[in-house]
Design goal:
The protein has 409 residues and is an alpha+beta fold. The chain contains nine helices and twelve strands.
Length: 409
């Protein structure tokens, strides 16, 4: 039996030359492309050696006064990072990230770092990416100058800090004359025989002074919440009783505007996990907001229910008014600091726009949230405060003999 000679595969010389030509052409194209990019770019091989840098990298080296503008070329990027680990945390992070890429455990990573230069400090965003496709392992490392953005963010943080300091100072300065004013109003009300008009005037002074006190407290609380200075004293609180107390506290303001407050409350207690003082503050701000933005003679409805969408794990406090309403497009920004609802009411009714901000931030500290809904201008508003229900207390333990019984008389 004659056997055929084994088949031997041979490479196609023309095919091999074509692949090499395409590879060379690819390198010829990529070089100019990298040179047009504003980011500083270095290409690393499988060992971490820098095998190529772009024009921006060279310009940066020249501006920094390097003897060789292509500073780092042919150096090992990993060793450079390792030598700087002790003095620069980011250098260690870069080395670790590059090793993961070269080991095939990651496709890339990014971080931001500060670079000290002879002029002002510069900020860069570093991005490292494994070169896709077949062929030798390559990692592209780019450094993008983000100094302008970083400086702008730093300026915003500084402005925010100064704003908080100003709010604290303002609140304390306003509070100083407020206590004597309230005390004087109480003394006049209790010790002097007043005419009907006099009683109305002194009642108005007391009401407005208490309103000013609430605004000052809100100013201080916004600053405290922003700086993380508020510590909640949470406990099991009957939200039904808390709502009744809030309605009673708001009754004077409501009566002054001829508002009718209606309550739809459960017959039995409903407990939430909350700080009772902060719960009263949130409820007071929601009712104050409803009174403020409802024309005289309006109706405000308050209801409490177990959260229907959370399997009774939350409780909802719903405040609905017949007030001026809100443009639905403006609902997302309603709880932002110093935001005010557009209103045709007297400008004095507008407030500082901080009450709802305090409600939102306190609700979030409790693990809850607050939302608003409105069908538009003149159609009233609905605010829903959602808080976590209190965890029921464990039943009293019993021994093996069964439940405990009272001793015989």
């Amino acid at each position: 039996m004659t056997r055929s000679p084994p088949h031997r595969s041979r490479s196609n010389p023309s095919s091999t030359r074509g692949e090499r030509a395409r590879a060379v052409a690819g390198r010829d194209v990529l070089g100019p492309v990298f040179d047009t990019l504003p980011s500083l770019i270095a290409v690393l091989d499988a060992r971490g050696d820098i095998v190529a840098v772009n024009a921006a990298w060279r310009r940066f080296g020249a501006e920094a006064g390097a003897d060789d503008p292509a500073v780092g070329l042919r150096d090992n990027y990993l060793r450079v990072c390792a030598s700087a680990r002790e003095s620069c945390v980011e250098a260690g992070q870069v080395e670790d990230g590059l090793r993961r890429i070269l080991a095939g455990d990651a496709e890339g990573f990014e971080l931001e770092y500060q670079c000290e230069t002879p002029g002002q400090p510069l900020w860069f965003q570093l991005q490292a990416t494994r070169w896709p496709g077949r062929g030798p392992v390559r990692v592209v490392v780019s450094h993008t100058d983000i100094t302008a953005r970083a400086m702008a963010e730093q300026a915003l943080r500084e402005a925010d800090r100064r704003k908080d300091e100003f709010l604290v100072m303002l609140a304390h300065e306003l509070r100083s004359p407020l206590a004597p004013l309230l005390n004087a109003a109480r003394i006049v009300e209790r010790s002097e025989p007043l005419s009907e008009r006099g009683r109305e005037a002194i009642t108005m002074v007391g009401r407005q002074a208490r309103q000013l006190s609430r605004l000052i407290d809100d100013l201080l609380d916004v600053s405290r919440i922003t700086r993380g200075k508020i510590e909640l004293k949470r406990m099991s609180v009957d939200v039904v009783g808390a709502v009744r107390e809030a309605i009673e506290a708001a009754s004077a303001e409501a009566a002054a505007r001829a508002h009718r407050i209606e309550a739809d409350l459960p017959a039995s207690p409903l407990y939430v996990d909350a700080d009772p003082t902060r719960l009263a503050q949130m409820l007071g701000n929601l009712l104050d907001n409803a009174c403020k933005y409802t024309p005289d003679g309006g109706r405000i409805a308050v209801s409490v229910r177990a959260g229907p969408e959370t399997g009774d794990r939350t409780a909802d406090i719903v405040v609905t008014d017949t007030g001026i309403g809100i443009d639905p497009a403006k609902l997302p920004e309603l709880f932002e600091l110093f935001h005010q609802i557009d209103t045709t009411l007297d400008r004095a009714s507008g407030g500082l726009g901080i009450g709802l901000t305090v409600v939102r931030r306190l609700a979030e500290l409790h693990g809850g949230h607050v939302g608003a809904a409105s069908d538009g201008a003149g159609r009233g508003s609905t605010f829903t405060l959602t808080l976590p229900r209190a965890v029921p207390a464990d039943p009293s333990p019993t021994d093996d003999a069964g439940p405990a019984t009272d001793p015989p008389a």
